[in-house]
Amino acid sequence: MDKEQKAIERLKTASEMSFEVYNKPLLITYSGGKDSDLLLLLADRSGIPYEVNHSHTTVDAPQTVYHVREKFKQLEDKGINCFIDYPYYKGKRTNMYDLIVQKKFPPTRLIRYCCEVLKEHSGDGRFICTGVRWAESRRRKDTRGIYEDFSPNRINNVILTNDNDDTRRLTESCFKRKKMVCNPIIDWETSEVYDYLEESHIKLNPLYSMGFSRVGCVGCPMVQRYHYRDFSFFPKYRDLYVKAFDKMLVARREAGLTESKFSLPWESGEDVMRWWIGYDHAQLTFDDLTEKAGY
Ligand code: SF4
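^ thats the input. predicted complex w/ iron/sulfur cluster below
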């Protein structure tokens, strides 16, 4: 079976399980990137009923915001239910900049609180499909599967990594799952994604033609090597981060988290930005970071 057919079979299986477990159609998570464009195309070609959501991270590039709007308009014209999840923290609407002030420390590779708040609650209580692919990172190859069941008790999580695994295991235990996941294109190579989309005449997010190979949050700490590139394309986002860092320093002082106490030479938001983008990074351990963050 070729990869297109395999992905379509996975979507059909996930769709059946979605109705069986949640009595709701499959939820396709759409980021505005090429992988989620492929996922939408395959969902359409599979003939299954589905809904689409997008997590508004508040630090998406304008090109992504417009691309998502355009795609949602096309889908809604075909009668497909689309919705945007906005982030909440402690019961109130939030955004990346507000979170930085509330958390009193910039998000880092080790303390990714932004992902937890801005993205990870999306699709709770549903069977979702994502465009995760093994080719994107070695870590994904080791930790992600075709079907995933995230139970309230992590010990009971089930990750199935091949199509011959018994997918019924995902639906057989009786406790209510927080979220079930299918990654139908997990085994597609990057070139296969581009080729398939090109052959199908799918318009991509304009960020790709600007030289971006991935679409994500501007200034994401997980891809620190791209901070300079991100901020040279989007200098207003840099300004907003610096303003948030200024407010964060005030919040830290008010909370008694003074720089002298934590030995961080931060006098201004610009100092924090320099540290954050790695210009004068100290070699901090996880314990250092959590202590400095006041966790
Ligand atoms: S900035 Fe990076 S770590 Fe934070 S929400 Fe976005 S993708 Fe996740």
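Confidence is low (pLDDT under 50) at residues 282-295.
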